[in-house]
Amino acid sequence: MVIKLSVLFIYFAILFLIGIYASKKIKGVSDYYVGGKKLGFWAVAFSARATGESGWLLLGLTGMGAIAGVSAYWIVLGEVLGVGISWFLMAKRFKKATDKYQSLTIPDYLESRFQSTKHTLRIIAASALTIFVIIYVSAQIDATGKAFESLLDMNYYGGAILGFVIVMAYIFTGGFVAVVWSDFFQGILMLLGLIALPLVGWWTLDNGAEVINGLHSIDPNLTNIWGGNDDIWMTVFTLLGFSMIGLGFLGSPQIYVRFISIKNTKEIDHGKWVAVLFTLITDAAAVSIGLLGRYLFTEYGQDPESILGEGGEGVLIKMIENLFPLTIVAIYIAIVLSAIMSTIDSLIIVASSAITRDFYQQILAPKITEKKLTKISRYVTLTIALLSLIIAMIVAINSPDRTIFWFVIFGFSGIAATFCPVIILSLFWKSYSEAGAIASMVSGFLCVPFFKFIIQPLDGIGIYFEKLDVLAPSFAISIFFGWLFSKIYPKNSPKL
Description:
The protein is mainly alpha-helical and about 500 residues long. It has 19 helices and no strands.
């Protein structure tokens, strides 16, 4: 335990030092929320991917690999495609537009893009962002508590609160600069840790081919890339649900604010390769860890969740505790926490900007000074974080059987369905109108709980939509309503 705590102390100390150093860079609200638009491609690419992946990658995706088998690689394909399209086709357009409009936030960009004379679009965007970010942050805090509980035998609630305090310490002082630099550091840890674990796992085996044969003997469906379900429609909906996760990278604010913060479009040309390779390597490694863990620690006829935890989310922990000495285990604890905290910090900053910049400054107090606004930003950040912590505690008490994978996906999907269709259409369709943008956001926002709580529980079709999950259908409906309302209300549709 002493070794584990010592390694964690060093890790946390580095984060605190990043926050303190970054605080010296904060001169105004632009620095606090987008780093003064001066960041380089390495930091931005690693930060964007660390934020986009989160604890879902290390605990959720590894668990999905253990439970679903090789069909979980469809998630890898979907994420690589999503990240690739985002960086290769959308990032430059978005960067040029936000620089032209001098935008600091996504609502800033949307209001300028549609030359809105009212604040309706800004209010809807900021409200939706705040609500789903709080849900998403709550899911990450929940993952923090589970990580401390599993890895350090700490009380779940104490671990969640401790992780919360650590993140807030460097965000409160250093703002977005601290977030990006800490994400860069944490992203490196995640990358190295995910590469090392499956390599060591393979090295312990006499013959790597035995993994496939062993998995097949445990359950033939584990080695079937199509999932092995006898119901063809169930297979289709399941694989679409896996691969459509990549849609969430096509405009989510917590990711796209990185494109606002990057120095220039040339940096994007370099960063796109870093982002895609990071995604491919880490996601493929995560699924491989799940497969190896399922083979090494379960046998034919065994219930994997009784050994690897609910949803297989204990497989990574099982692997590192059985394959590495104590010191390395301690480092992996820091890596797991890195994955979680790198998303918490980014989300909180985005939600804080929505309230401080988009509500308070742009609507209520346009003449407020930069110094005062920066001070208010810090307290808003703290308030949002506290609310997220409270929600995480309530969910933990009332839903003991929840899994990190689907809890995180719900919050992630809410943000993505609300904003990604709007960003895509605003960048590529000249006739997209303000009414269409509002329709896209409202429909995407409402469809996520609609499909989750109304459609999925239905007898008959519900199970198929449960496998598809909420993002893909919500995304499609949001696109449709954006097109429809732009046709009905085409006014105020400026050229790009």
